[in-house]
Structures are given as structure tokens and as C-alpha cells.
Amino acid sequence: MLQVDSINVLYGRLQVLWNVSCDVSAHQFVTILGPNGAGKTTLLKTISGLLKPASGSITFEGEELSGLAPYKICEKGLVQVPEGRKIFAGMTVKENLEMGAYLPSSRKHFAESLAKVYSLFPILKERQNQLAGTLSGGQQQQLAIGRGLMQRPKLLMLDEPTLGLSPKLAAEALHTLKVLNETGITILLVSQEVLQSLQIAEYAYVLENGKIALSGTSAELLENTDIKKSYLGL
Ligand SMILES: Nc1ncnc2c1ncn2[C@@H]1O[C@H](COP(=O)(O)OP(=O)(O)O)[C@@H](O)[C@H]1O
Ligand SMILES: [Mg+2]
């Protein structure tokens, strides 16, 4: 479904991604792991079209994405839930969800999408008229995911959705992603929760210093000695 082929990405003269390749198949749950500063956010932003690769190609359902405006990419069903949630704090919960369905392709299905989001996250329905900035961290994360769902994603990319959440809320957020995946949404999850992410994802890539250091099925990586030593403290 998504094919990232040997992309190089720079900020000015600073190269951050080096020949990065990764694939996501339809309906798969894939995770990208790696320490702070590895380039995970840069990779997602490049897939979303917010950054342009200096070389390499990115295709989605067989179509080349490089050169397309971010909103065009979003319209194809490739949706990013940004790091740090980036909800609109001064707008209500419902207005935030309306922003998620801003593009005409998703606005048509607004009522149906809203009902789905509210059934997945009942607290958002209860708080629909409350200012989003007054929600708790866990609720804000639900809102950020809900806003992404309003765009009717085929592939949902999430950038560290568990950051700053308690272990219990983080586990709940990851479980929600598993449920979404089972409803047919393909998931690309960027995470520093290595153990938990490997437990729910089918396939994983490890990004270190802008390069794919390792990849494999989650079962393979859970058995990998480097992963055990560097990431799982075993
Ligand atoms: N806008 C930017 N301008 C210059 N350098 C940046 C910018 N954003 C990120 N970087 C640098 O790129 C590298 C990768 O960052 P990032 O993709 O945010 O990593 P991660 O998400 O894995 O923590 C870091 O060294 C970071 O300092
Ligand atoms: Mg990041």
C-alpha cells in the first residue's frame, strides 16, 4: 500500500534521513521504533508531503506522492496524527472534529464519521461543547486520533501517541489502535514504547541516526539480542 524507496531528506544542508526504505501492506500494523532524534517525525512528515525528499520515491497505492501538496496526500486517505497532538485548544471538541473533516472528500461523510468517533470515544461526545484545551492529556490524545479518523483514513500514521500518558492510558491508546486496525484501517505507528508496540504490531522498523538499522516481524525483533539489550533492558 505504502512504499518508501530509498529517500534522502535534508533540513538545509543537514541530512537527517539516509536511503530510508520501508513498506506497509494494506491492513497491516507496522511500527517504527527508534530513539529521540533518529528521524521518525521527519519520516512521517515526508510521507505526508510536509517535507520534500531530496531523492528517492514514495508511492501510495501505486501512485507517486512526491511533489503532491499535503492536502492532496491527505485526500488519498493517508492521514497523520501529529506528535504532541496539536489539537486546537481554543476550539470545542466538536469543532476540532469538524476540522478533521475539512476536505470535501470527508466533509460529505461528516455525520457518519462523527458517530463512529463518538462510539469509539464516548467521552468526546459527552464533552463535545467543551474547549479542547481543558481536556486531560488522555482525552486530548483521543481527540487527536478522532480528528484523524474524521478524514476517513485508509492508512493512519501516528507520531508517538502515547507520549506523556500514564502507562495505563498509553496501553489503552495502543489497544484502540489495534481495534482500529481490526476494522480495516492500516496503521503506521511511530513509538518509543518498544515492548508494547512490538506486542501489537506485525512488523517493525528500527530507525537509528537516520538509517534503518533493523527490520523484521515483531516476533523476530522481540527475540533479537540487540533489541533486547538496547531497547528492552534485558
Ligand atoms: N525543522 C528542523 N530543522 C533542522 N533540523 C531539524 C528540524 N526538525 C528536526 N531536525 C533534526 O532532525 C533530526 C531528526 O529529528 P526528528 O525527525 O524530529 O526525530 P525523532 O522524531 O526521531 O525524534 C534531529 O537531529 C533534529 O534535531
Ligand atoms: Mg519525533
Topology:
Layout lengths: L1 E10 L2 E11 L4 E5 L6 H8 L7 E6 L2 E2 L5 H6 L2 E4 L11 H8 L3 H4 L2 H11 L1 H5 L10 H13 L5 E5 L7 H16 L3 E6 L2 H7 L2 E6 L2 E7 H6 L1 H6 L4
Parallel strand pairs: 3-8, 3-9, 6-7, 7-8
Antiparallel strand pairs: 1-2, 1-4, 4-5, 9-10
Helix pairs in contact: 3-7
The structure holds adenosine-5'-diphosphate (ADP) and magnesium ion.
How would you briefly describe this protein structure?
The chain has helices at 40-47, 70-75, 93-100, 104-107, 110-120, 122-126, 137-149, 167-182, 194-200, 218-223, 225-230; strands spanning 2-11, 14-24, 29-33, 55-60, 63-64, 78-81, 155-159, 186-191, 203-208, 211-217. With 234 residues, the protein is α/β, with parallel strands linked by helices. Helix 8 (167-182) links the parallel strand 7 (155-159) and strand 8 (186-191).
Can you give a write-up of this model?
The chain has 234 residues and is α/β, with parallel strands linked by helices. It folds into two domains: 1-77 and 153-234, Rossmann fold (3-Layer(aba) Sandwich), CATH 3.40.50.300; 85-152, no CATH class. It is 38% helix and 26% strand. The strands form two sheets. It has a six-stranded mixed beta sheet, with helices on both faces. Helix 3 runs parallel beside helix 7 (137-149). The relative contact order is 0.18. The structure holds adenosine-5'-diphosphate and magnesium ion (MG).
CATH topology category name of the largest domain: Rossmann fold
Order of helix and strand elements from N to C terminus: EEEHEEHEHHHHHEHEHEEHH
Residues in helices, as a percent range = 25-40%
List unreliable stretches of 5+ residues: none
Shape summary: globular
Instruction: Kindly state the number of beta strands.
Output: 10
- What is the domain tally? 2
CATH class type of the largest domain: Alpha Beta
Please indicate the percent range of residues in DSSP E strands (runs of 2 or more): 25-35%
Number of helices: 11
CATH superfamily of the largest domain: P-loop containing nucleotide triphosphate hydrolases
